[in-house]
UniProtKB/TrEMBL annotation:
Entry annotated with the keyword DNA-binding: yes
BP terms from Gene Ontology: DNA integration; DNA recombination
Organism: Rhizobium subbaraonis
DNA-binding keyword on record: yes
Family statement: Belongs to the 'phage' integrase family.
Transmembrane intervals: none
Name of this chain's protein: Site-specific recombinase XerD
Domain of life from the UniProt record: Bacteria
InterPro entries: DNA_brk_join_enz (IPR011010), Integrase-like_cat_sf (IPR013762), Integrase_catalytic (IPR002104), Integrase_DNA-bd_sf (IPR038488), Integrase_DNA_bind_dom (IPR025166), Integrase_recombinase_N (IPR010998), Phage_Integrase (IPR050808)
Length: 424
């Protein structure tokens, strides 16, 4: 018998009325196609279960399903048989009919409706769901989406991780907004984490019988240690002054400076709303962050930047977009341009956050205080009264003003023509 092909199936002749015709694959034992007098062709799998009882199951119709799709499905069923399961019984059990793709869709729908709880037993945040959806569509579905969830093994999960690292799901940037999808240990590890979370919720809520990825090991992420040196902070300040004279967006420059003076995450800095800001007292009251609602102290120079931003109609943001009703979103690109103009390499918005914490450490503040500065330890709000520890006020003020001083310090070696023009 030869291997089943599309051409061979199309060449089959319908049997006489009341009979069936079969064509079997010469490579995968038990896999074949059954033809009825009407001409309908259905892929089938013949096998013996653990009790040595001969059984036959339908895999799908030819035309709706390709030969190769049917072959892959047959392999999955044969794998179940090797594990002692009986696909004929499993097909009657909804636990055994869940594909990884279907579970991902179920998870997103349930989580968006607030019926799946995340950290601190609260509904999963929209920002987290957006990242989950990106990993699902970019990595998980292309690599494992067609697999039956209950057949997954640790090797499959770790294999997906290796494939992402190798760049099998990488793709170039499209015509719209958004970055390039690449591989790497960090991306792969986060994709595994998302899949494990989905499977864990599915097992807990009885969508599948067990958690098939339990025990899979995630690659250790590389901890970001990059900070700007004193010389680099001065260069960044010079680059900002030069860019301001050469048409760079004033909103983008303000955000970059604000991030450098606060240590805020870029999503926090760009998304600050006016009614969250109390520049006079020196704090921003975030209703929701990565660590829930927080009061974050800011220094005088940072407060001055935020308070001086012009309002744009009814836009509620401190740093409004000039083309939508949302907030400005291109500060990251501006930071990259600034650093490139003065030869500073390996900088991301997180570098500014790490620099803020490092400068605070250089000034002698404790690790606990620095964690509070960066929002790892929330300040309290009780009955409308905002309490910010005096030691924290001192730390944020000294750190903010130290960085502001370095950013404002002239450096003739960076853009000498600019300094000469200012002197003239």
């Amino acid at each position: 018998m030869a291997k089943l092909t599309k051409r061979a199936l199309e060449a089959m002749t319908p049997p006489e009325k009341g009979k069936q015709a079969f064509l079997w694959d010469g490579e995968l034992r038990g896999f074949g196609v059954r033809m009825l007098p009407s001409g309908l062709q259905t892929f089938v799998l013949n096998y013996r279960n653990a009790a040595n009882k001969e059984r036959r199951i339908n895999l799908g119709r030819f035309g709706v399903m390709t030969v190769e799709q049917a072959r892959e499905k047959a392999k999955v069923k044969l794998g179940m048989i090797a594990d002692g399961d009986d696909p004929a019984d499993a097909d009657k059990d909804p636990h055994h009919q869940q594909t990884v793709s279907a579970l991902c869709d179920w998870y997103l729908a349930e989580a968006e409706a607030g019926r799946i709880l995340g950290r601190r037993n609260r509904p999963i945040k929209k920002s987290t769901l957006a990242m989950d959806k990106s990993r699902i569509e970019t990595h998980i579905k292309p690599l494992l989406g067609s697999r039956l969830a209950h057949t997954l093994k640790v090797a499959d999960i770790e294999g997906m991780q290796s494939d992402i690292v190798a760049g099998k799901t990488a793709k170039p940037r499209g015509g719209g907004r958004g970055g390039v999808t690449t591989g790497g240990p960090g991306v792969a590890s986060r994709a595994v984490g998302t899949l494990q979370s989905i499977l864990g919720h599915a097992a807990r809520l009885d969508k599948i019988e067990s958690h098939p990825s339990r025990g899979a090991r995630k690659l250790a992420g590389k901890k970001k240690q990059r900070r700007l040196s004193v010389a680099e902070i001065k260069k960044l300040g010079a680059a900002m002054r030069h860019a301001e004279r050469n048409g760079e967006s004033p909103v983008a420059l303000a955000i970059v400076r604000f991030l450098a003076l606060t240590g805020f995450r870029i999503s926090e800095g760009q998304g600050v709303q006016r009614h969250w800001l109390n520049a006079g007292v020196g704090y921003v009251a975030f209703p929701d962050t990565k660590s829930d609602a927080q009061i974050r102290a800011i220094g005088p120079s940072a407060a001055k930047i935020a308070a001086s931003q012009p309002a744009r109609g009814n836009n509620p943001y401190v740093f409004p977009s000039d083309i939508t009703d949302g907030h400005f979103t291109s500060a990251k690109a501006c930071l990259f341009r600034l650093c490139a103009s003065v030869g500073i390499e390996g900088v991301t918005p997180h570098t500014l956050r790490h620099t803020f914490g490092s400068v605070a450490g250089d000034l002698g503040f404790s690790e606990l205080t620095i964690r509070a500065l960066l929002g790892h330890a929330a300040q309290s709000v009780t009955q409308g009264y905002v309490h910010i520890d005096e030691a924290l006020k001192l730390a944020v003020t000294r750190t903010c003003e130290e960085i502001a001083s370095l950013l404002d310090e002239e450096d003739k070696a960076v853009f000498p023509e600019q300094v000469e023009r200012q002197a003239a």
